[in-house]
Amino acid sequence: MDTTTRAMPAFLPDGSVEVPAFTLPVSDLVSAQAAAMQRLRAEMPAFDAAGEDGDIAARRAQINAYMAPQIERLRAAFPVSIVRSVIGGVEVLDVTPAEGGHDPHRVLINLHGGAFCVGWDGVALVEAIPIASLGRIRVISVNYRMAPEYRHPAGVEDVAAVYGALLEDYAPGRIGIYGGSAGGALTAQAAAWLVAHDLPQVGAIGVFGAGGVPFGTGESAYVTGYTDASFPPPPADGSAPADITHGYFAGCDARDPSAWPGWHPAILAHFPPALIITGTRAMDLSPAIFTHSQLLKAGVRSSLIVGEGMGHCYHYQLDLPEGRDAVEAIVRFFRENLT
To answer: Whose CB among 31, 112, 233, 305 lies 3.0–4.6 Å from 123's, allowing a Cys bridge?
Structure first.
């Protein structure tokens, strides 16, 4: 093989690597539908998932409008009943299958994505509808407090309030918590919060598009900033990245166990069985892998799914075989672990 004209990476004394420009082809391991979707990105306008716009009300409306067509398709494919209610003093969406019964002894708490500042209730419905329908299970999606109006630990306090109220009707081992993106991180925080506050641990958790350490940690944020581009890579000059959470973690130490339990093996040792889902083109790949490995080291049963060629929270995309497979794995995981 002639390498005389091939650009080579430069390995620097500080351990960093200067990576030459290259073209990343569509993986030959993805489905035909996923490959077609990646080709369509050449014609699709870029969507700013990071959401650095300062007008939070406009941003929230934008996200809900963006999700509305997908919610309409999901409701047609997965008939559900959606009731707005209050549980434990917190607004929730109570989602159940529209046709036939659901498991009366088990319940899932859903924590929506949206960078701790947006996502209610557009993202919440995208996360709750298919799980409730396919799993034949009640899903309680929580309108937890977000930035810029609130700061950590407001969100996890709301999750604990809903959980405490549900304990009146369900055994803790039959309650699960799951979420995508910010909701995935919040799920890990909730499992840690229960330990710290002497509450019974839930039966299982699902951490999707996230991990138990901050977004942006590890290598994946750098790589996928260019291979996926949904989120910008860390600044090349080493400066702090833009805070897409609108200050939700302001004043919070980067290794605070209530915010980022992935750094703390003694806390992880008390976690329930976990399912972690990420993708090879997802900025959360490194946090997800690290959290999975730390859970295993702590003696916790953890399962990791890494979608080939998939981006951030690809389980939202049920029109792709990979997305449908991920959702079916989620349903199967909770069915097996909520005893």
So the answer is: 112
pLDDT band at 1 (very low <50, low <70, confident <90, very high): very low
Q: Has residue 49 got a pLDDT over 70?
A: no
Query: pLDDT-derived band of residue 6, with 50, 70 and 90 as boundaries?
Result: confident
Taking alpha carbons only, the member of 63, 102, 59 closest to residue 80 is: 102
3-state secondary structure the chain: CCCCCCCCCEECCCCCEECCCCCCCCCCCCCHHHHHHHHHCCCCCCCCCCCCCCCHHHHHHHHHHHHHHHHHHHHHHCCEEEEEEEECCEEEEEEEECCCCCCCCCEEEEECCCCCCCCCCHHHHHHHHHHHHHHCCEEEEECCCCCCCCCCCHHHHHHHHHHHHHCCCCCHHHEEEEEECHHHHHHHHHHHHHHHCCCCCCCEEEEECCCCCCCCCCCHHHHHHHHCCCCCCCCCCCCCCCCCCCCCCCCCCCCCCCCCHHHCHHHHCCCCCEEEEEECCCCCHHHHHHHHHHHHHCCCCEEEEEECCCCCCHHHCCCCHHHHHHHHHHHHHHHHHCC
